[in-house]
Amino acid sequence: MTKRHCFTLDLKDDPQLIAEYKRHHQKIWPEITKSIKDAGIVDLEIYAFGTRLFMVMEVDDHFSFEAKANADRRNPKVREWEELMWKFQKPLPGAKPGEKWLAMEPIFKLEE
Description:
CATH superfamily: Dimeric alpha+beta barrel
Number of domains: 1
Radius of gyration: 15 Å
């Protein structure tokens, strides 16, 4: 069984940077894909509307945010990727220092 998490983040309001950010995500580094899958993330999608990003993440029963964060801190390629991505991203209002993607609160689900 999987669980869905949704996050949001903003990009800097610069059309060239936004285009470059999108190009980076057309073919992310294989080490990043591996770190995502190894953490128990079974599906991940990012959508953009102007400068606003929306990420949908499906995780398996073994996924842990804490374990993923610890693994990322130990992985030099993930740290390099995150540093590169910060060139394009900016914190949302209300984000704590160093906080990037913020979890969104689910407020509606269509029931069968």
